[in-house]
Write a structure and sequence with these properties.
The chain is α/β, with parallel strands linked by helices and 359 residues long. It has two domains: 2-189, HUPs (Rossmann fold, 3-Layer(aba) Sandwich), CATH 3.40.50.620; 230-358, no CATH class. The protein is built from eleven helices and 14 strands. Strands 3-2-1-4-5 form a five-stranded parallel sheet, with helices on both faces. Strands 8-13-12-11-10 form a five-stranded mixed sheet. Helix 1 packs parallel to helix 2 (39-56), helix 1 (8-21) packs across helix 6 (150-160) and helix 4 (85-104) packs parallel to helix 5. The longest helix is centred in the first third of the chain and has 20 residues, at 85-104. The protein is elongated and about 80 Å long. Bound molecules: iron/sulfur cluster (SF4). Residues 35, 82, 86-87, 90, 119, 169-171, 174 line the site of iron/sulfur cluster. Iron/sulfur cluster is lined by residues 35, 82, 86-87, 90, 119, 169-171, 174.
C-alpha cells in the first residue's frame, strides 16, 4: 500500500495504526508536498518524516518539489482562507499525484495522512478515492483514525516520539495570513544575504533536528526544550551624507524608532561617534577589527561574511555598556563629518526557540 505523507506528526501515528490494522501489507511512504514554503521548511519536514519512517521500518520515497506547478494551480486563490478553495486545490493535487504514483508502482491500494487532517473532509477524500478506484483499479483505503480519541492519541504519539511540530499548515499564503492575524513577524520568509543561520530560523531548526538524528544513531539521550527570547530581523540599512551613499553595516539588534534619522555627530569619545538623534552610534571598521580581532578590509566583506552573533553582541556591549541595548550601532569605513541620513528598517519581536540538551 502506498501511503501519501504530509508531515511526521500526522504520519507517525497514522502509519503505526496502519501497521496494526493491515499487518500483512507492505507499506511504502510517499512524501509529496510542493505546497510547503519556504524550501528549507520542506527539507525540515522531510527530515523528520525520514526519521519517523526509519523508526517504523517503512520505506520512504519522495517526489519532485514542483512548487511552480502548485503556484500555477492556486493562482487567483491567494487570499482564500484556510479550509477554503485554495486548500481544496492543494489537497486534490497531492491526492492525485499520490494516486498516480500508486498506479506507476503497481500498488493495489493507497491512502493518505491527509485523512487525519482537521482541514479536510474525510467524505470528500473518500469520494475522490472511490472515483479513482473505478478508473484505475487502485483501491483507496479510507480509514478514520481521528474519531474515538484518535486526535488525543496522535498528540501523545507526537510528544512521545519528539516529532517536529510545525506551527503553520505549509504554504506561503496561509503562513502570511496566520502571522498577520497573530500580529507576528513571518520570519520564515526572511533570507539574509550572508546566508547566516539566524536565531529562531528554520535553518537553525534543521541543524538541531539533524543533530538529534546523530545523537539517536549514537544511542545518546537528549531532550528538546523551548526558550522565549527577543528576536531580531534587519530588512534595510543605508547611510548617506551630502547625498552620497556610504557603505555601512548595522550590528544585530540595531533599531530606529522611525525608518529614517537625520543627524550630525555631537561627540566623539573612545573611538565612538555619538549622533544628535535616536542614540545612533558610529564606529569604524578599524575599531571593529581591533575589538573582534578580525581583518575585514571593506564593509562589503562585512556584509557578506559578518562576525558571529556572539561577537556582535560582545561588541554591542562594549560600545553601549549594556547587553540589552537596541541603539543603532553602525559600522563605516570612514566617519562622515557632515549631516547624515540613516535609513534602518528592522523588527524586534518575542519569539521561541528550541534547544537541544544532551543528557
Ligand atoms: S493552508 Fe495548507 S492546505 Fe491550504 S493551501 Fe496552504 S498548505 Fe495547502
Amino acid at each position: 500500500m502506498l501511503v501519501h505523507i504530509c508531515c511526521s506528526v500526522d504520519s507517525h501515528f497514522f502509519l503505526e495504526r496502519l501497521q496494526r490494522e493491515f499487518a500483512d501489507e507492505k507499506l511504502t511512504g510517499f512524501f509529496y508536498n510542493p505546497n510547503i514554503h519556504p524550501y528549507s521548511e520542506y527539507r525540515l519536514r522531510l527530515l523528520d518524516v525520514e526519521r519517523s519512517c526509519a523508526l517504523l521500518d517503512i520505506e520512504l520515497i519522495t517526489a519532485e518539489y514542483d512548487y511552480e506547478t502548485w503556484l500555477e494551480l492556486t493562482k487567483g486563490l491567494e487570499s482564500e482562507p484556510e479550509k477554503g478553495k485554495r486548500c481544496e486545490v492543494c489537497f486534490d493535487r497531492r491526492f492525485e499525484v499520490s494516486a498516480q504514483k500508486a498506479v506507476e508502482l503497481g500498488e493495489k491500494s493507497f491512502t493518505t495522512t491527509l485523512l487525519v487532517s482537521p482541514l479536510k473532509s474525510q467524505q470528500q477524500l473518500k469520494k475522490a478515492g472511490d472515483e479513482f478506484y473505478k478508473q484505475s483499479g487502485v483501491k483507496f483505503i479510507s480509514v478514520d483514525y481521528r474519531s474515538g480519541g484518535g486526535t488525543q492519541e496522535q498528540s501523545l504519539c507526537a510528544k512521545e516520539h519528539k516529532l517536529y511540530r510545525q506551527d503553520y499548515c505549509g504554504c506561503l499564503y496561509g503562513l502570511n495570513m496566520q502571522r498577520t492575524t497573530q500580529d507576528k513577524t513571518a520570519s520564515e520568509l526572511y533570507s539574509p544575504i550572508d546566508a547566516a543561520v539566524l536565531p529562531g530560523s528554520i535553518e537553525q531548526r534543521i541543524e538541531l533536528y539533524e543533530r538529534r538524528v546523530q545523537l539517536e544513531n549514537q544511542d545518546r539521550d537528549y531532550e528538546i526544550v523551548k526558550e522565549r527570547f527577543l528576536n531580531y530581523r534587519q530588512l534595510h540599512c543605508s547611510l548617506s551624507s551630502n547625498s552620497e551613499k556610504i557603505d555601512v553595516y548595522a550590528l544585530h539588534y540595531s533599531t530606529l524608532p522611525r525608518a529614517i534619522c537625520k543627524a550630525t555627530i555631537t561627540k566623539h569619545i573612545d573611538h565612538i561617534s555619538y549622533l544628535s538623534r535616536d542614540n545612533v552610534r558610529l564606529i569604524t571598521l578599524e575599531y571593529l577589527n581591533r575589538e573582534l580581532l578580525s581583518s575585514y578590509a571593506t564593509i562589503q566583506e562585512l556584509l557578506y561574511n559578518p562576525p558571529p552573533l556572539k561577537d556582535q553582541l560582545r561588541l554591542r556591549e562594549i560600545v553601549s555598556n549594556s547587553p540589552y541595548s537596541l541603539s543603532p550601532i553602525i559600522v563605516t569605513k570612514n566617519t562622515p563629518k557632515t549631516k547624515m541620513v540613516l535609513r534602518l528598517q528592522s523588527r524586534v519581536y518575542q519569539d521561541t526557540v528550541e534547544r537541544l540538551i544532551v543528557l
